[in-house]
Amino acid sequence: TQQPLLTTRSTREWQAADAAHFLHPFTDFQSLARKGSRIITRADNIYLWDSDGRKILDAMSGLWCVNVGYGQQALIDAATRQLRELPFYNSFFQTATPPAIELAELLAEITPPQFQHVFFTGSGSEASDTVVRMVRRYWDILGQPQRHTIISRKNAYHGSTMAGASLGGMGAMHAQGGLPIPGIVHIEQPHAYQLAREMAPDAFGRLAASWLEDKIIELGPDRVAAFIGEPVQGAGGVIIPPDTYWPEVQRICDRHGILLVSDEVVCGFGRTGHWFGCERFGTRPDLMSFAKGVTSGYVPLGGVMVGERVARVLIEQGGDFEHGYTYSGHPVACAVALANIRLMQQLKLVERVRDDTGPHLASLYASLAEHPLVGRAETCGLMAALQLVRDKASGTPFPPERQVGLLCRSHCFANGLVMRAVGDRMIVAPPLVMTRAQVDEMGALIRLCLDKTWADVQHQGWR
Ligand code: PLP
After folding, report:
1. pLDDT tens for each residue of 382-426
2. Is 291 in the pocket of ligand 1 (CB under 6 A)?
3. 268: Cβ below 6 Å to ligand 1?
4. Ligand 1 center to residue 59 CA distance, Å?
5. pLDDT tens per residue across span 86-135
6. What is the CA radius of gyration of the chain?
7. Which of 152, 230, 266, 330 to mutate to test the pocket of ligand 1 (most atoms within 8 A of CB)?
């Protein structure tokens, strides 16, 4: 559909100015300059429009964040009101603003009962840094500074700051800038594609959890401070663990007195059909980081929910906690978050994902699993992955240099769909306001792009 454009320049003009001045995140600058970026100019509900007026279904919710969809008046009004009333004041040095206090109160209400306190940040990466500093501070206060090491997982994504990228398990990120920082180690993720195909899921989940205990014993339990993980690894490719994985991880952390940290930046605020991913997978984390969905991405905000085990020590024995950000508890961001959470409650979005659109997406993916290109189709709430394979029966992948995922993604771009490729894993995490009819609309586009990719693969003789 053609929409009136608010922009004043042509696509080519935008692209030229962009390439001349704007260094994008996670981008090969030369390739960007050659191909030209895609300029997104407006959005509504689950759709985007680019600078040529083309309509695109945003199956990634921006960057996993626009949970309530675009154009929600309640959020726009909350921001406008707060900008007029008090656009900024800090929360350093014993001051506070009403939106930050009210949001802290509401978060204590909607998160699991062990969480009564929150530390606000400006992003998910800053939340990861806060986790590292808070976990180490906790053990220092308790007189156990040797409990310093944090265990994370390969292929995890916890942000892009020095601590965030160190907690993350992305080899390409570690290769730049001398990461990880000391005291962070990584175990395998619960995703060994062939292994998981050969074993029953429950047994595989327990096996993957046992890799954590092996690492704890290798390091010495009294040297380990915490284990951190995303309930479902998002940026790593929507890696959904078997149901036995997290409860076993919880038992292992309990057995060794190790703090459990749930990174809910992607899974939080309804994505899995529960308010938080830890509720879907049955853990009781001590800390829980969040960002993205807390404001549906309308303005930046993140934070760490601090469980009573840690909060009591910090508050009663800790003295000054030498950590914080100018924008911790930013009043406009907090006002938008309040409006966002209340809107989610009013629309019963979490229940809708759990009982209606989530199961509907699961049945759609069960039918996509029949496609000749698809080796595996998995969903959890409103996030999903399709593993593209060369040989369906044996699950044999394509050689990575074929870049079949990128080929599929280019068909998505050309056909008005944002679907992300992580290697040959095609992933979606659409806005939670999506209706059943829109799930079907997305499904039809995905099928079309799979068909086109399949035709290319056959034409090239790649199978
Ligand atoms: N943690 C997870 C699980 C994420 O997916 C992300 C971002 O994608 C982050 C942390 C970092 O958040 P931010 O980009 O807001 O710094």
Report:
1. 999 999 999 998 889 999 999 999 999 999 999 999 999 999 999
2. yes
3. no
4. 18
5. 999 999 989 999 999 999 999 999 999 999 999 999 999 999 999 999 99
6. 22
7. 266
Which residue's CA is the closest to the ligand 1 atom numbered 13? 124
State pTM to two decimals: 0.97
Structure ipTM over 0.90, yes or no: yes
Domains of the chain by start residue, with CATH: 11-68+348-459 (3.90.1150.10), 73-346 (3.40.640.10)
Q: Which atom of ligand 1 is nearest to the CA of 125?
A: 16
